[in-house]
Amino acid sequence: MKNATSGVSFPGRLTHFFQHGTMYVFERTLRSIP
Fold this sequence. Notes:
- This protein is mostly helical.
- The protein has one helix at residues 2-32.
- The protein is rod-shaped.
């Protein structure tokens, strides 16, 4: 049960981190252009 929970939680966290990181980089790039 613990292993299954970890398997479900890890991908979700990774996706959330990836989306957050992408938005952060995108916003930084937009602010850096002007």
